[in-house]
Design goal:
With 220 residues, the protein is mostly helical. The protein has two domains: 114 residues, no CATH class; 105 residues, no CATH class. It has nine helices and two strands, in the order H-E-E-H-H-H-H-H-H-H-H. A two-stranded antiparallel sheet has the order 1-2. The model has no long low-confidence stretch (mean pLDDT 92).
Length: 220
């Protein structure tokens, strides 16, 4: 799988995030603290020193990019990885966008902007799940990306059927998250429901893959 474009893109994202962090951090007092965590209601419940906090997003982007680069190199089934390139790109770019959201939330809050952090995160993650689910249904068997259960790895047909179901469920979960963000339903009471919807979209395909494998085994 060719990675040159994504390497350059990732390097650009890391540099932009780092530059923004240094620009803002250099203008803050020595003892300033920046937010590093928000609760389900969008309220800040965690702080860190300015440099430690502002470096979270650039480091996150750098580490995840290196991890995805390693995955693309180490994946034994390179042919199937090439056929599932869109899925890999969605996950890779999505994680970089998450780092960007973290940076924007921190910098915006420090500068006094009215950043709707909870809405931004829920809506952004919903969009990510929606796009990811669309590509997940088109993926081919791989060892390092996808719904990797013993049963999907044992049979290409089970892999395809499981990922088609998983992709549809993830798209539904993503739509639920986006609707919740659009309606402002992102408070502390909504969090368990949103998390539950996403967990179901992840767990149901795992059970489904086992049931498919068991049915095929019983049929000999």
């Amino acid at each position: 799988m060719k990675n040159r474009v994504m390497i350059l893109f990732s390097a650009g994202v890391v540099l932009v995030l780092a530059a923004a962090s240094f620009y803002v951090g250099d203008r803050l007092p020595a003892g300033a603290r920046v937010p590093i965590h928000w609760n389900a209601a969008g309220q800040i419940d965690g702080y860190a020193g300015k440099w430690a906090g502002l470096m979270i997003a650039p480091v996150m982007a750098l580490v995840t990019s290196l991890l995805f680069l390693l995955v693309t190199v180490a994946e034994p089934k390179q042919d199937n990885l090439a056929k599932s390139r869109a899925l890999m790109l969605v996950v890779w770019i999505g994680t970089l966008c998450v780092a960007g959201v973290v940076e924007f939330s921190q910098v915006g809050t420090v500068l006094g902007w009215a950043v709707p952090v909870a809405t931004l995160i829920v809506g952004g993650m919903g969009l990510f799940f929606l796009i990811l689910g669309n590509q997940l249904s088109k993926s081919r068997p791989m060892y390092m990306v996808g719904i990797r259960t013993p049963w999907t790895l044992a049979d290409p047909d089970i892999w395809i059927a499981t990922h088609r179901l998983g992709g549809k469920l993830m798209m539904v979960a993503g739509l639920v998250w986006m609707v919740a963000a659009a309606c402002g339903w992102v408070g502390i009471f909504a969090a368990p429901v949103l998390v539950g919807v996403m967990m179901l979209s992840a767990l149901v395909p795992v059970v489904y893959s086992y049931l498919l494998w068991r049915r095929r085994t019983q049929r000999g």
